[in-house]
Write a structure and sequence with these properties.
The chain has 313 residues and is α/β, with parallel strands linked by helices. Helices cover 36% and strands 22% of the residues. The protein is built from nine helices and 15 strands.
Length: 313
């Protein structure tokens, strides 16, 4: 097998594509906007074009890994109407992305949830190397959750990935609609996209990004600071739920919105300790909370890990 693979990281706003050596070294990469507004066919065409450009320069590559936002079925190679993939509010529905890319690129293609790929990458060569119980939260357009328990990736039934970003924190909160169709999901509060939307309403401004709101908070804007204080409270509640489900030793934050961690991580840690101090059972429930050490490339490296370690042809 070639020492190199092609990897995709497909999110709600961006496409990252790269050539990765089996050592984990990124040889070549590009990032581009996903442009879902142009339609499903246009996005798939762009994926194929970007992939072909790399394969023209690295024709020895035999395997391709795709880390994508879900829901998806990695065994059947299907996207299942991913929550944050839509064109004019029309969902993508069922897309056989492995078959489509495989036919176009003439390579073996392997699919995985982006948060699952991220936790595998962290366990492979990131901050979780020394841990057997790990959780990764990807903070971007959505809230992805990837979990390794006792050294093995956690899946849910029917080959799906646990969509723990859609655990509901407040089912009656009309101010927190989620792309999945429900109200009050963890994602509706904690993803960069939805945090920005809700905070813009409080600021009576429109179109601000999470990074811009973070700059306002660092400049001591009262409303922005209050928004991050609320964020840390809701994050600590979500983490308590995840800890009771998965008992991680370490929880890592990655994704574009994790860059604002200086405004919420310390307070989240304090509030989470206060919640967990009442837990019984003689176990040290409090995990280590830290940022990813992979520079927002956990999904891309995870896609490479999937391609390198898949037992399928």
């Amino acid at each position: 097998m070639s020492q190199k693979v092609l990897s995709y990281d497909l999110g709600g706003t961006k496409i990252a594509v790269g050539v990765i050596h089996r050592s984990g070294r990124i040889i070549d990469e590009i990032r581009a906007p996903a442009e879902f507004h142009l339609g499903k066919a246009a996005v798939l065409k762009k994926l194929i074009e970007l992939g072909k450009n790399f394969l023209d320069r690295h024709p020895e590559i035999q395997r391709v890994g795709v880390a994508s936002a879900g829901p998806l079925d990695p065994i059947q190679g299907l996207l299942l109407s991913p929550t944050n993939f839509s064109t004019n509010h029309d969902q993508w529905k069922k897309v056989p992305i492995v078959r489509i890319l495989g036919a176009a690129l003439k390579r073996s293609v392997h699919l995985e949830n982006d948060a699952a790929a991220a936790v595998l990458a962290e366990h492979w060569m990131g901050s979780a190397k020394k841990f057997q119980n790990v959780m990764v939260l990807t903070l971007g357009t959505g809230l992805g959750t990837g979990v390794i328990c006792n050294g093995k990736l956690v899946r849910s039934g029917r080959n799906l990935h646990p969509e723990a970003g859609h655990i509901i924190l407040n089912f009656a909160d009309q101010s927190a609609p989620c792309g999945c169709g429900n109200l009050g999901c963890a994602e509706a509060y904690l993803s960069g996209k939805y945090f920005s939307q809700r905070t813009c309403i409080k600021l009576r401004r429109s179109g601000l990004t999470g990074q811009e709101i973070a700059e306002l908070a660092r400049a001591r804007n009262r409303i922005a600071l209050q928004a991050f204080d609320e964020y840390s409270t809701l994050m600590s509640i979500a983490l308590q739920n995840y800890i009771r489900l998965y008992t991680p030793e370490i929880i890592l934050f990655t994704g574009s919105f994790a860059e604002a961690s200086d405004l919420f991580l310390k307070a989240t840690r304090t509030k989470l300790k206060a919640i967990l101090k009442n837990q019984k059972g003689g176990l040290q429930w409090m995990p280590k909370l830290a940022l990813s050490s992979l520079d927002n490339r956990a999904g891309l490296l995870g896609g490479a890990y999937i391609a390198l370690n898949s037992h399928q042809n």
